[in-house]
Amino acid sequence: MKRYVIIGNGAAGASAAEQIRLLDNEGSITMFTRESHPFYYRPRLPEYLAGEISLDKFTMHSPDKYKQWRVDLRLEDSIVSIDPKAGRVVSAKSGPLDYDALLLACGASANIPSLPGTDKKGVFALRSLEDANAIKAAAARSGQAVLVGGGLMGLEAGHALIKLGLRVQVAEFFGRLLPRQMDAAGAGLLQALLEKMGFVFHLNVRVREISGADCAQGLLLENGTCLPGGLVIFSAGIRPNLELAIDLQTDKAIKVNEYMRTSQPGVWAAGDAAEYQGQPGGIWPTAMAQGKAAGADMAGKPFPYLPKPPSASLKVAGINLTSAGDIDPEDKLTAKRLIRGDNYRKIILRDDVIKGFIFLGAAEGVRQCAEAMNQGKKLGSLTDELDREDFDFKRLSL
C-alpha cells in the first residue's frame, strides 16, 4: 500500500488528493494544513468579511468529503521539516511520518515589505479565514482604513470595508490599478468606477512607514503625505512558502517539470509553491490543473500539466473583469477596442490570431475569445469587426 503525504489543503492539494483517490483506491493519504477549516474558496473571503456570506457557503469540501476519499486531514498541524532521502516528514503535532510520495502544495503568504511599523496592531493582509476574522474585529473599532497596493484581493477587501461603513484610501506604487490584468485605458475606467463607490486612490507613491505607537494610525508616504487609518491592509502580492524546500531546486518557487516532479525523487510540488518553465503557479485554475497532474503522477498514472495562456475571470468590487493572454499594456500590438459607458473591451491580435484580451464590465464574448485564442484560430476578415458594439461573438466559433 502506497503512502501519500500532502502538505497544504488549498486548490492544488485538494485537487491532488481527489486525483490520487480516483487512481489508487488502496493507498493512504495524509494531508496537513495550518488552517483550522477544511478547503474553502479563498476568493470569497471579502464577501465573508462584509458579512454577506457564511463560511458554509464557500466551503468547497466538508469533513464528509475527506471521509469519502479516506483522507486523513490534520487541521492546524504544520510540517516543520522534510527528509526526502529518508522519505519522512515531521509535523508540529503528530511528529514523524514516513511517505512514499510527497506533495508540497503549501501555497503562498502575503508579501508584506520590510517597513517600519508593520509589526503594529491593526496591520493585516487578507489571505486566510483567520485574517478575515481579525480584520472584521479591527474594522468594528476603526472608522478609516488604508490599503497598501491596488491588488485584486486588496480592492475586494476595501470594497467590503466600505460596505461596513469605513472610509478607504489606497496607496499604490504603480501608476494604474491591477497592472498585471489591465492596460492604462481599462485601469482608468476601473478606477473611476471604484471612486464612485467611495475609494480614494493615491497612485505612483511609496510608503515610508506605518505611523502610530503600538497601534497603527495610518501611513506616512515618501512624499510626506499622511493617510490616516487605524486599519492597514497590505495587498502587495504574494511570496511562495519555501521554508520546506531546503533540499529542492528553487528560483521564484520550487522548480518542477511537466509532471510536477521536483529535483528530489518522491517529491512533487504544485500551485503557488511551484514554478514551471520560469512561471510560479499564481492563480486558482493553474493550481487545480497542477494538483491534478501531480496526483496522477504520484499514483503512477502520469499525464503532463499543459499550461494555458494566463487568464483570470474576476469580480472587482462587483465589476466583471476577464483578462487573458498578452494584454499588451504598452500598446505595441494591433488591438480592437470598444469603450461604452462602464464597459471596456480590448482584443489584441497578431496575424489575425487573438493573443490576448480584456473585458471590463460586460462579459459577452469572453468564452468565444478564449476558445479562439487557445486554438490559435485565424479570424481573417472578422478581425476588422471586433470593435463593433453589435459584433456577434458566436461567429468566432463557426
Protein model, in words:
- It contains eight helices and 26 strands.
- By secondary structure, it is of the alpha/beta class.
- It has a five-stranded parallel sheet with strand order 3-2-1-7-19. It has a five-stranded parallel sheet with strand order 9-16-10-11-12. Strands 22-23-26-25-24 form a five-stranded antiparallel sheet.
- It starts with a strand and ends in a 23-residue tail after the last helix.
- The model has no long low-confidence stretch (mean pLDDT 93).
Nearest-angstrom radius of gyration?
22 Å
Shape: globular
Distance between the termini: 50 Å
> Which strand order does the major sheet show?
3-2-1-7-19
Low-confidence stretches: none
Q: Note the total helix count.
A: 8
Structural class: alpha/beta
Share of β-strand residues: 25-35%
Largest sheet: 5 strands, parallel
Q: What percent of residues adopt helix (DSSP H or I)?
A: 10-25%
Tally the beta strands.
26
Query: Roughly what is the average pLDDT, rounded to an integer?
Result: 93
Please give a handful of descriptors for the protein shown.
five-stranded parallel β-sheet; 30% strand; alpha/beta; 398 residues
